Automatic annotation (TrEMBL):
Annotated keywords: Cytoplasm, Cytoplasmic vesicle, ER-Golgi transport, Golgi apparatus, Membrane, Protein transport, Transport
Presence of keyword Protein transport: yes
InterPro entries, sorted: AP2_Mu_C_sf, Coatomer_dsu, Longin-like_dom_sf, MHD
PROSITE patterns per UniProt: MHD
Membrane topology: Peripheral membrane protein
Phylogenetic classification of the source organism: Eukaryota, Viridiplantae, Streptophyta, Embryophyta, Tracheophyta
Protein name, entry field: Coatomer subunit delta
UniProt-annotated location(s): Cytoplasm; Cytoplasmic vesicle, COPI-coated vesicle membrane; Golgi apparatus membrane
Biological processes annotated in GO: endoplasmic reticulum to Golgi vesicle-mediated transport; Golgi localization; protein transport; retrograde vesicle-mediated transport, Golgi to endoplasmic reticulum
Pfam family, one: Adap_comp_sub
Top-level taxon in the UniProt lineage: Eukaryota
Quaternary structure, from the entry: Oligomeric complex that consists of at least the alpha, beta, beta', gamma, delta, epsilon and zeta subunits.
GO annotations of cellular component type: COPI vesicle coat; Golgi membrane
């Protein structure tokens, strides 16, 4: 048996990881991997594909393929055994079986593959032995790290000595300059203060430049009695070399960009005592986040081309002592939704009691900092439908040409299933010299001249405004110009109606405090 390469590729053909075990050029392995997605047929139960020169032995892992490229003389039974061992290692080393998860653990997976396959031949090892071999410590590595750390510490000591010498020389220099300046008398000090006040007023320092504290100090200096003041020795000379206020040309440039539709975010200093509670990360010990992404394609004449909902449930734990838990959930009982647990989850426990727990009950869930909002994926689900009543928001666009003008009427109709927030309907327009004439609208609108898009915004769609319309006029144009129409929105309800019922501590004791977040958002929502 000769294994030429072990690879992980996406179902679209993107190579995420590849390890070659024989001498092979990059062009050849790229050609072999590029040809694989074209050879895999849909609906077949085979786990291998043969060509004139090589054999592909593969195994689907969620949205990925684990692939062995072998010669045609190899034993396919041994190849399948090798493939099963590699699939166990992939799920062991990578928490999320997607492009991001494989990319983060790419080197660990390559090292593990090297322990299983040597020069194209399988080694007689198990998963536990591979983990042990990959985690073994090296005496030479420890010695190298100790030598490197000692060099770093020595360099830090030299830096500290040099910094103290520089600070000492600066202090001595300031003392000598201060003594020479103060011997000149009080008349020079008074002149310096008068020049400084004139210079500050002419150089633009004031309330508008963000340096209001300087103006206050200068006013205070002018009210103090005349005499020798040590603080004046360090005053800057007449005229400042750099002016920090915003110039008039800069303001005009920003205003012109705003007029063209660009979003300008100014760098403003936060006010003292300003509340930042809204940006604070979650403080609950356990947070569960259920998210659903909508991919919908509607036809302009009515009907659905595509309706796909993909959901994930992730877990975020702040404290390590709360890691030994199980999560009990409740679903809405929709038969059209297919749930799939993470490979490390106990599938029998979930199918019997809707409880999410690890296969090894003594193994805790990983913990993360409060700023890490991604969490650990526990559950995925997907729903596809051709029922138009499942669409949360439908759009109708009616362009009509009358004389030298095109009248465009757009209306939306929202389902009663969800209350939609931050709705933005983007309508492409032909190239215009002037802003379109919006005659009637339920909500607000904004025109982006650079991309030639008219955005219709509705802050909230609930029972008070389940339908709305907009009408605008543009020069004559073909009706196909106004498509595809893109839609963005979010909601706090889910199609799956998934709820976290309870957190079960495996060590006993009181139930830890937890919170649940739900969010439905659009990933690709269009009318074509």
């Amino acid at each position: 048996m000769v294994v030429l390469a072990a690879s992980i590729v996406s179902k679209s053909g993107k190579v995420l990881l590849s390890r070659q075990f024989v001498d092979m050029t990059r062009i050849r392995i790229e050609g072999l991997l590029a040809a694989f997605p074209k050879l895999v047929g849909t609906g077949k139960q085979h786990t291998y594909v043969e060509t004139e020169n090589v054999r592909y032995v593969y195994q689907p892992i969620e949205a990925l393929y684990l692939l062995l490229v072998t010669n045609k003389q190899s034993n396919i039974l041994e190849d399948l055994e090798t493939l099963r061992l590699l699939s166990k290692l992939v799920t062991e080393y990578s928490y999320s079986l997607d492009e991001e998860g494989i990319g983060k653990t790419a080197f660990e997976l390559i090292f593990a593959f090297d322990e299983v396959i040597c020069l194209g031949h399988k080694e007689n090892v198990t998963v536990a032995q591979v983990k042990q071999y990959c985690e073994m410590e090296s005496h030479e590595e420890k010695l190298h790290k100790l030598v490197l750390q000692s060099k770093i510490n020595e360099t830090k000591d030299v830096m500290k000595r040099k910094a103290s010498e520089i600070d000492k020389s600066k202090i001595d220099k300031n003392r000598s300059e201060k003594g020479g300046f103060m011997s000149m008398g009080s008349g020079r000090i008074e002149t310096s203060f008068s020049e400084l006040s004139i210079s500050s007023s002419a150089s633009g320092f004031g309330s508008g430049s963000g340096f209001g504290g300087i103006t206050t100090d200068l006013d205070a200096f002018s009210t103090k009695p005349k005499g020798r003041q040590p603080s004046a020795a360090n005053a800057p000379p007449k005229g400042f070399g750099m002016q920090l206020g915003k110039s008039q040309k800069t303001n005009q440039f920003l205003e012109s960009l705003k007029a063209e539709g660009e979003l300008i975010v100014e760098d403003l200093q936060p006010k003292v005592g300003q509340s930042r509670v809204a940006a604070a990360p979650p403080t609950d010990p356990i947070t569960l986040t259920a998210e659903e992404k909508l991919n919908v394609t509607l036809k302009r004449d009515g009907g659905i081309s595509n309706f796909d909902v993909q959901g994930t449930l992730s877990l975020q734990i702040l404290n390590q002592e709360d890691g030994l838990i199980q999560v009990q959930i409740e679903t809405g009982g929709n038969p059209g939704i297919l749930f799939k647990t993470h490979p490390n989850m106990n599938k029998e426990l979930f199918s019997n009691g809707n409880i999410l727990g690890l296969k090894d009950p003594n193994r805790p869930f990983p913990t993360g900092p409060a700023g890490d909002a991604a969490g650990v994926g526990l559950l995925k689900w997907r729903m596809q439908s051709a029922d138009e009543s499942m669409v949360p928001l439908s759009i109708n666009c009616w362009p009509s040409v009358s004389g030298n003008e095109t009248y465009v009427s757009i209306e939306y109709e929202a389902s009663a299933m969800f209350d939609l927030r931050n709705v933005v309907i983007s309508v492409p327009l032909p190239a215009l010299r002037e802003v379109p004439n919006v005659r009637q609208i339920d909500g607000e609108w904004r025109y982006d001249p650079r991309n030639s898009i008219l955005e219709w915004s509705i802050l909230l769609i609930d029972n008070s405004n389940r339908s709305g319309s907009m009408e605008f006029v543009v020069p004559p144009a073909d009706s196909s110009v106004f498509f595809p129409i893109s839609v963005r929105f979010s909601a706090t309800s889910l199609y799956s109606d998934l709820k976290v019922v309870n957190i079960i501590p495996l060590r006993g004791g009181a139930t830890p405090k937890f919170s649940q977040r739900t969010n439905l958002s659009t990933e690709n929502y269009q009318v074509v």
